[in-house]
Design goal:
It is a single chain. The protein has 153 residues and is mainly α. Helix 1 packs across helix 3 and helix 1 packs across helix 5. The protein contains 6 helices and no strands. The longest helix is centred in the middle third of the chain and has 37 residues. Helix content is 80%, strand content 0%.
């Protein structure tokens, strides 16, 4: 049970911190937030504080598994684009039009990933009671204030 809570919590916090709202999505979309540095630490605590019942845990776990599966292919595409960009930078036959095309592909994938995360977070919030949503929003607000005070955005 604790391990399952930890897994669900880790995924939920990562998504929650990046997509609690439009401004929050923009603020948390930078390096470090979704890069794995902040995924594990606070999620267990957040899920514990939300006091999910078994049905909520199962539903949220399912949502995050679906999100993970959909996003993995996009992340693989992003990796391939980064490699192609690196090759262009290192190439003796640099093509700025090719770089622009790769950058546009990268932007489209980032947009799709953001929409997917927002959709998942919306569905997660639908699983929560009004009290749980209020607690979640309060935790997000406190986290954002701490990040602001540390100069993260």
């Amino acid at each position: 049970m604790k391990r399952r809570n930890w897994m669900i919590g880790s995924l939920a916090l990562a998504t929650t911190l990046s997509l609690g709202g439009i401004g929050l999505a923009q603020a948390c979309g930078g390096p470090g937030m979704m890069g794995g540095h902040h995924r594990d630490g606070g999620m267990r605590f957040v899920m514990y504080k939300l006091d999910l019942n078994d049905d909520q845990e199962q539903a949220i776990k399912q949502l995050f598994e679906e999100q993970k599966d959909r996003a993995q292919a996009k992340r693989d595409e992003m990796r391939d684009i980064r490699q192609a960009l690196r090759k262009q930078i290192q190439s003796t036959s640099y093509d700025p039009n090719q770089v622009r095309q790769l950058a546009e592909q990268q932007a489209a994938i980032k947009t799709e990933l953001t929409v997917q995360r927002a959709d998942t977070m919306h569905k997660v919030r639908e699983q929560l009671s009004a009290e749980q949503i209020a607690r979640l929003d309060e935790m997000i607000d406190r986290r954002m204030e701490r990040m602001k005070s540390r100069g993260h955005f």
